[in-house]
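Q: How do we represent a protein-ligand complex in a form that can be generated cell by cell?
A: Start from the inputs.
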Amino acid sequence: MPEEFARLNPKRKVPVLAVGDQVITEMPAILTAISALSPDRKLMGKDTSETVRAYEWLNYLSGTLHGQGYGGLWRPGRFVNNASVYPDVKEKARQTIKNCYTFIDGKLKEANTAYSVGDSFTGVDAFLLVFYLWGIRIKIDMDAGYPSYAALAHRLLERESVIVARKVHVRMT
Ligand SMILES: N[C@@H](CCC(=O)N[C@@H](CS)C(=O)NCC(=O)O)C(=O)O
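Then emit the C-alpha cells for the protein with glutathione bound:
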C-alpha cells in the first residue's frame, strides 16, 4: 500500500471517504457521512427506530462478517503469527462467514420487508450486496443457500445506481 495512502488513513484500510477537509474511515461512519450529503434519501433510516436498526446491522456486518469472517479468510495473519496454522484460521473464518449468512438470511426472512431496514433502500442494503457478491467470489452458492438474502441482492442488482457503481468498481483483491 503506498505511503501516500497511509498518510490519508494510518489504519491502512479501505474504504476511505474525503468530504471537504474531512477524511472519514470505517463503514458505519462513511455511510452516515454519505447519508448526510443527501438527507432526503434517508439512507440511514426514516426515523430513530430505523436508524438504530441500521447501526445494529452495520456494526454486525463490519465487526463480525467483515472483520472476523473475511478478515480471517483473506488476512489470517491478523489473527495468528504462526503461518502454519493459517489453514485452521481460514477454515474457522469460512464457518463464521457461513454462520453470518445464515443469520442474515433468517433475519431478512423474518422481517419480510422490501429492504433490510423497513420498506426503503438504506446503506445497509448496499453493504449487504457487497457481502453477497463476496460470497459468490469465495464459491458459496448464495442463491441456493440463502434465498431471502439472494432475493434482496437480485433486486438491488437491478438498481440503476448499482449497475453504474459496478461498472466503475476497481477490484482490490
Ligand atoms: N473496519 C473497517 C475495515 C476495513 C477493512 O478491513 N478493509 C480491508 C479491505 S476489505 C483492507 O483495507 N484491507 C487491507 C489490508 O488488510 O492490508 C471498515 O469497516 O471500514
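The pocket of glutathione is lined by residues 12-15, 26-27, 62, 66, 75 (CB under 6 Å). The chain has two domains: 3-41, 48-168.
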